[in-house]
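Request: How about a record?
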Amino acid sequence: MTLNIKNILIPGKVILAPMDGYTNQPFRLLARRLGSSASYSEFIGAMDIVHNHPSMNEKLTFSPLERPFAYQLFDNDPERIFKAALILRKRDPDFFDINIGCSARHVSSRGAGAGLLKEPEKITEILELLVKNLDIPITAKIRLGWDDQSLNYLEVSRRIEQAGCSAIAVHARTRQQGYEGIADWSAIREIRKSVSIPVIGNGDVRTFSDIDRMCSETGCDAVMIGRAALSNPWIFSGLDRENVPKLIILQTAKDLLQLMQSFYGDQRGVIYSRKFIAKYIAPYEVEKEIRQNLLTATFSEEVLSILKHILCV
């Protein structure tokens, strides 16, 4: 199964979702090795780009091995997000994705991310400005609405299509829900029936069978996996967490450490790796002291030694 975002071929139906603080370049590369079909940056504030924030270069770096690659932008100001896109266009991404779904208070409370769901006209303004003035596809990622009393996902989806966007990703929860409750897959099905551009489903995909079930129940063109991929990146290879051999877990941890250290340097690479590897051991009974040792280890050899002890390999 393949997906086309305008002229960009996405060679598969399962994609790692953008997640702030997690989908850095090394983890994206690991997910691609395991079978994710495209890469999205962590969400990027347009204000940081326009004002040339000194910490942004690492967030903006991507490998040719990640293509197709998208920068995901957020802001509540049409001109500023357009200026940021023009700056980032020089880095040659394959497409831009606009975040209309982030539920974090510091983003949505100022009218960006899911805050834009309260202003559908501004969504149209932002997307039309980008589509008309950029030469690569524009996509958007949304939630179902601000809360259960303002479920405007059909209106927003139609506006996204009418603005000329090339795909919609739908996290099937409201901003108020955050990550609580059950994702409403029926809303994804409604959106799929109401627009002609590709729809990517997101929310409560935890097992490999959930991927086919979401596609079957909603008719979506692809599936985006976020939090479940942190503890089970092997889902992109068709494996549920309980079916992943211990030696594969260990090898993946080695690969992650190598990627992180190559990108961030030895010490920072270990620090960035620890929170991922800690999720790999979630199914096991681990003494508090041993878990704490893993989370404070400063050398890759130390991390792998602790992991081998936990896995008994």
